[in-house]
Design brief:
This protein is mainly α and 257 residues long. Helix content is 60%, strand content 0%. It has helices at 3-16, 20-33, 39-45, 51-64, 69-75, 81-94, 100-109, 113-123, 133-150, 156-171, 196-209, 213-226. The termini are far apart.
Length: 257
């Protein structure tokens, strides 16, 4: 049985499911197959009133990757807000730069905190190598500006996601001191060295002022990843007793007084 035949069988199982449990099982099996032909059916599952099936569909679409991006972007303007929210989660997970505008808008303006959180995380996992080199710096600056704004979001989970993306943005370059250096052919080619201080300043400000302990803890973790602590002062080794000069004590005799 080839992939096309398998896809048709699994798609038919989704279409013929007559209970929420069977629908969930069918979508999970279809998502696990990872077949490109299943994209329209997985996207349709985002609009069902079945959160479990929607989660499975999102996972399947992320696994399929770039081929799922154009139909997902078409869904964004759909009247079904629930499906739109799940689609944004899928786009965030895929990280395709074609979804940049959608992720920026959702992260900054969507009324759902879970959607803003997903979009904010997606901004930190964009595949920069998909951009022409001449557009790279301007787009990265645009993303940085958005993340700095999102760090002021009233919901702590969104600010937490923004911190995660700032860390990723700072760590994704080819700076050998970043701790995440990769060969130029495969890295994300981040070109933000001049903006690094803006990231570190924002993180320090959040560490000093954010009201949520979870956010402050995540900020500290990001700081340690971006700027590993310098080596502590190394104490000189103790000298062996025989290496220590002991001043001579004048002989005063051995008798008691």
């Amino acid at each position: 049985m080839n992939n096309s035949e398998l896809a048709q069988i699994l798609i038919r199982a989704v279409q013929e499911a007559d209970s929420s449990e069977r629908l969930l099982d069918a979508v999970q099996e279809l998502a696990a197959a990872g077949i490109e032909e299943s994209v329209p059916t997985l996207i349709a599952a985002l609009g069902y009133n079945n959160p479990g099936a929607a989660v499975a569909a999102v996972d399947g679409l992320i696994a399929i990757g770039e081929a799922a991006v154009p139909p997902l972007l078409e869904l964004i303007d759909d009247y079904n807000y629930g499906a739109r929210a799940w689609a944004i989660r899928a786009l965030a997970g895929i990280g395709d730069v074609r979804a940049l505008d959608t992720l920026l808008e959702a992260a900054k303006t969507d009324f759902s905190l879970s959607v803003r959180r997903a979009a904010a995380r997606g901004l930190g996992t964009l595949r920069w190598h998909q951009l022409p080199s001449e557009k790279l710096e301007s787009v990265q600056t645009q993303v940085l500006e958005a993340l700095l704004l999102i760090c002021q979001d009233p919901e702590w989970v969104v600010r937490y996601a923004a911190v995660t993306s700032l860390e990723t943005l700072a760590m994704s370059g080819d700076n050998p001191q970043s701790g995440n250096a990769m060969p130029a052919a495969v890295n994300n080619a981040v070109t933000l060295p001049d903006q690094a201080s803006r990231i570190t300043n924002q993180l320090q400000q959040m560490l000093d002022t954010d009201a949520d302990l979870g956010v402050r803890t995540r900020v500290r973790f990001a700081q340690e990843k971006i700027q590993p602590p310098q080596h502590q002062e190394v104490f000189a080794p103790k000298k062996k007793l025989q290496d220590i000069e002991v001043p001579e004590v004048p002989y005063r005799g051995s008798g008691r007084r």
